């Protein structure tokens, strides 16, 4: 990641400097937004029609199309995500309407998610403000001083099968059906309104497809999209060299450029993921729509200094489990075997 102390790299820009750089890219393009609706939402709906006609031909053909639909649903979620940031369209009303429609398709309550995600953006990389809209990450000391039941729970939650298959399905099918404690009345209302819209659409599709074909298609699609989405979110904030600081030392610019990855994907995967691999740019300014992220990244040398995270390095991040505050890096469980005997932490051994 970008190191402000390295003589070979430029220093981190001031807030005034980076705002001047990104400002031209925060202006939404109605033409690009409408085209994305056509090639994303339009294509996704077209695949559902195609799956209806292939049911009588071959289940495996329908299943293959459902896998592709899952990939497109990731892109639909990025549109939903941009609408939540108010960046997809210039019009607030257009953002809210399209965001709500995308929320029905992605099983995510728009207003409630928008609130939680704003908390994530305000606290990403802050060790003292973890817990909302992020992946559960403990420090080494927290883990070693936790009771056995909590450590076992944490290990289970950080298991790749749980984290990238069971957890995504739970998140989108069950967790998003309920409100977060402390949510305002308007956010609670948005959850119940979205649940009503989702179940109503499901009833219509079951009447058209039959309950078993609908479940097979919908679960396949959601599983692909949810797993892909959670993986993208994970690798955007869990990678070698990631930035974490206590609140008193936390810096917004550093958290964006060093605490969010530049996940460099092959062009086809970049398209399906809606350019969200340029996550360092997105966290620097969430007002930049996805269709301007790459252009913004290429516009200034400061962004070129951010080390890209490749597919190979991304998969290596699976070994990271805890944050070591002393060494200032993510580590695996093997790292703590000897630390459990450290004076003052024997209780956790």
Structural account:
- 58% of the residues lie in helices and 3% in strands.
- It is mostly helical and 349 residues long.
- The protein has one domain (15-137, 160-320).
- The chain has a 3-stranded mixed β-sheet.
- A hairpin with a 4-residue loop joins β4 and β5 (329-331).
Offer a quick outline of the entry.
The protein has 349 residues and is mostly helical. The chain has helices spanning 15-22, 30-54, 59-84, 92-106, 110-123, 140-144, 148-157, 160-173, 185-209, 211-237, 252-259, 267-272, 279-284, 293-297, 301-304, 311-316, and strands at residues 138-139, 262-263, 308-309, 322-324, 329-331.
Radius of gyration: 21 Å
Number of strands: 5
- Give me the side-by-side strand order of the main sheet: 1-4-5
Proportion of helical residues: 55-70%
Q: Tell me the overall shape.
A: globular
Give average pLDDT, whole number.
Answer: 92
How many structurally independent domains?
1
Helical element count?
16
How are helices and strands ordered from N to C?
Answer: HHHHHEHHHHHHEHHHHEHEE
**Class based on secondary structure composition and strand pairing:** mainly alpha
Sheet with the most strands? Answer: 3 strands, mixed
What's the end-to-end separation, in Å? 34 Å
Q: Approximately what portion of the residues adopt beta-strand conformation?
A: under 5%
**Segments where pLDDT lies below 50 for 5+ residues?**
3-9, 343-349
List the helices and strands and how they pair.
Blueprint lengths: L14 H8 L7 H25 L4 H26 L7 H15 L3 H14 L14 E2 H5 L3 H10 L2 H14 L11 H25 L1 H27 L14 H8 L2 E2 L3 H6 L6 H6 L8 H5 L3 H4 L3 E2 L1 H6 L5 E3 L4 E3 L18
Parallel strand pairs: 1-4, 2-3
Antiparallel strand pairs: 4-5
Helix pairs in contact: 2-3, 3-4, 3-10, 4-9, 5-9, 8-10, 9-10
């Amino acid at each position: 990641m970008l190191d402000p102390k390295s003589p070979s790299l430029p220093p981190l820009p001031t807030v005034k400097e980076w705002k001047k750089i990104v400002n031209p890219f925060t202006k939404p393009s109605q033409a690009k937004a409408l085209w994305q609706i056509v090639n994303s939402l339009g294509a996704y709906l077209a695949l559902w029609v195609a799956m209806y006609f292939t049911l009588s031909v071959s289940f495996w053909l329908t299943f293959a199309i459902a896998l592709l639909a899952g990939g497109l649903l990731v892109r639909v979620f990025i549109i939903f995500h941009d609408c939540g940031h108010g960046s997809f369209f210039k019009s607030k009303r257009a953002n809210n309407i399209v965001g709500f429609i995308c929320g029905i398709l992605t099983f995510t309550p728009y207003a409630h998610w928008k609130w939680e995600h704003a908390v994530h953006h305000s606290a990403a990389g802050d060790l003292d403000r973890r817990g909302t809209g992020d992946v559960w990450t403990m420090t080494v000391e927290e883990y070693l001083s936790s009771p056995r039941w909590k450590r076992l729970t944490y290990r289970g939650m950080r298991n790749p099968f749980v984290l990238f298959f069971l957890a995504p399905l739970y998140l989108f099918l069950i967790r998003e059906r309920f409100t977060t404690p402390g949510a305002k009345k308007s956010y609670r209302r948005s959850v119940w309104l979205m649940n009503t819209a989702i179940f109503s659409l499901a009833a219509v599709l079951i009447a058209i497809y039959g309950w078993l074909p609908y479940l097979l298609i919908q679960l396949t699609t959601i599983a692909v999209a949810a797993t892909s989405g959670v993986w993208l979110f994970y690798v955007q904030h869990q990678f070698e060299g990631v930035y974490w600081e206590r609140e008193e030392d936390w810096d917004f610019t550093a958290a964006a450029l060093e605490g969010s990855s530049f996940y460099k994907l092959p062009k086809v995967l970049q398209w399906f993921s809606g350019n969200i691999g340029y996550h360092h740019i997105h966290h620097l300014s969430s007002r930049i729509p996805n269709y301007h992220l790459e252009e913004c990244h290429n516009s200034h040398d400061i962004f070129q200094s951010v080390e890209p995270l490749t597919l190979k390095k991304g998969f290596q991040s699976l070994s990271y489990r805890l944050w070591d505050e002393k060494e200032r890096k993510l580590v695996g469980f093997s790292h703590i075997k000897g630390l459990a005997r450290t004076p003052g932490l024997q209780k956790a051994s």
